[in-house]
Amino acid sequence: MIPTLQTIADRVNVSRSTVSRVLNNKWKMYGISQATADKITSLAKELHYLKNEAARSLREKKTFTIGVIVRDITNPFYSQLVKFVESALYSKGYTIIICNTGYDLDRENGHINVLLSRRVDGIILSPIQKSIENIFKIKDRNVPLALFDCKIDDLEADYILVDNEAGTMEAVSYLIDQGHKKIVYIGGNPYDSNNRLRYAGYRNSLSLASISIPDHYVKHGNYSFKHGYEAATQLLRSNDVPTAFFAANNRIMLGACKGIMDCGLQIPDDISIVGFDDFETATMLPSPLTVIRQPLREMALNAVDLLLSRIEKANNIPYMTSMLKTEFVIRNSTKNLN
Amino acid sequence: MIPTLQTIADRVNVSRSTVSRVLNNKWKMYGISQATADKITSLAKELHYLKNEAARSLREKKTFTIGVIVRDITNPFYSQLVKFVESALYSKGYTIIICNTGYDLDRENGHINVLLSRRVDGIILSPIQKSIENIFKIKDRNVPLALFDCKIDDLEADYILVDNEAGTMEAVSYLIDQGHKKIVYIGGNPYDSNNRLRYAGYRNSLSLASISIPDHYVKHGNYSFKHGYEAATQLLRSNDVPTAFFAANNRIMLGACKGIMDCGLQIPDDISIVGFDDFETATMLPSPLTVIRQPLREMALNAVDLLLSRIEKANNIPYMTSMLKTEFVIRNSTKNLN
DNA sequence: AAATTTTACGCAATCGATGGCGGAACTTTA
DNA sequence: TAAAGTTCCGCCATCGATTGCGTAAAATTT
Description:
Two copies of one chain form a homodimer.
Chain A: H1 5-12, H2 16-23, H3 34-46, H4 53-60, E1 65-70, H5 76-90, E2 95-100, H6 105-117, E3 122-125, H7 132-140, E4 145-148, E5 158-162, H8 164-177, E6 183-186, H9 193-208, E7 218-219, H10 225-236, E8 244-247, H11 250-262, E9 272-276, E10 290-293, H12 296-312, E11 321-324, E12 327-329
Parallel strand pairs in A: 1-2, 1-3, 3-4, 4-5, 5-11, 6-7, 6-8, 8-9, 9-10
Antiparallel strand pairs in A: 10-12
Chain A binds a DNA duplex through helix 2 and helix 4.
């Protein structure tokens, strides 16, 4: 039998209340004697007593649980996020429930229902652009929510973002400075806010340099290896081969690199490439990749801080957006054409 | 205010019991009229009623929660595991709590306490070799447990493993068949069961071929990029350069590859390498890596099946070990010396 | 019309922990 | 020795959902 407060109370001949007070370190303010406290403490240890969190949660209306909903846990971007978030929350006594949506709206919805049903204290969500209905379910219940890595149009909320446009401009301008004019944009889902902003940055940079963009230099699609691969190979085998690629995320970039290799070309000698997200493989290729790094650790910590301040202080503070700067990490995947 | 059963009961003028029965689809067996049932169902929908899981768990002594404790969530091996486990459990109505230990025993212990306190229905644990005390805490409470990716000496439990020794022998024998005699073992933590078995396989293969192993060809250490890198560079710069490396896991293998590249050498022309775990980057290098793949999906599903059968059927069945075969994936990272 | 059956629910205990309020027992003070 | 403090702790309601047992009211049978 698993011991409860009552088990201990019976053995020490006191009431549940007393045991509860002792085990919660409140016995002094309730004037419980040292002797009683000691007896209770040691018996609890002996019996390996562990508080039933379900009961505590029910009574206290607080679960010390945070739901973390990501699009793809196998993407290093998210698995790192989870690691940082888990670590930060663990030290504050919180536990995380992981939900993987695989970019599926219904699944996201299902997960949100579960989290609300479990009365989580807060949610970190990396939504998909169409999540707005799902998000309203959370907002209606007044559950603290941090939206991560995606801005939803016209939706007021707490956001954790990076400056996608500026980050992209820095990278594309770098290409332009190196003399590139034929720069292809291989993007993710066209409706995704990140993709739109990165695309905007790309256009801005080229526009500032008065370089026009042929339609077939823009390849929206989705954030997958496959899309990167196909877009790259198709262009490299066309009769208007670009000199550089911009990849909208790590998956696309990797796919594009593979495509380039499969076409028998070398980075950076035959073709240049830069893109979003830093990842380990980027440093492993023969020519390490120049990338735009997102400050993941800071983003994770900001998300946690934001949530905890709403949870533990007040939830009626105005919405905040944490917009961090990206870092342009120059390695060796671009060629200077000048 | 968040609606409860009572909220609905009051509005429909019935008792909590009736509402509960209707919402749990048990109203027929309790002879509740269709009319009442309909009123309740639609009101619940209108109010966006969501059952309080803490209350349900408390009463039912079942949480529909599984704890998943991994050593390093950012290792693709574990993030894939988590993905498969999450997906399988989601479809069965279970939720997972993620715990990352970072190979730290105290942290593992802390996480186990939290999970037990939350009365999870089961735990999937990828332990470290010294976890035995922690594991006993779980066993003492009779909580179903699946040990993943690590065999603890003399500990009876449910295990999900692969045939490390056979898998390694296949790979090392392959090197030997290609004429390699100077094969280095770059290993993980010396006490880790995987490492020991992989090392045993390595020794067996060489012994069968009557090839002796100089001491400095065995580099135990830990499962890190750094260790792989350092072991590789050190050997490549020594005066007894091997012709092939065997890497005990994906992190080590990547580090070794990087080390090889930094020494200005080419895979497979200058040096051959094979190793454990398949991972995306393995296919991205100029010469894709020949690896020993673990059937992660099957392992994850087996772990889930094993746990669920204990949870939902009986926990008094004998312990089982799921030992799956590895798959040798031949790519192009070894040179035929014959 | 009385007896029996069926229909349709309600009562109250339970799961385990928490905390406000109250109070008995003992000690000190006047 | 009675009044006033202290010391030390218990009673009981509460959180929300579930379920065994019981029963009033309506319907049916005899």
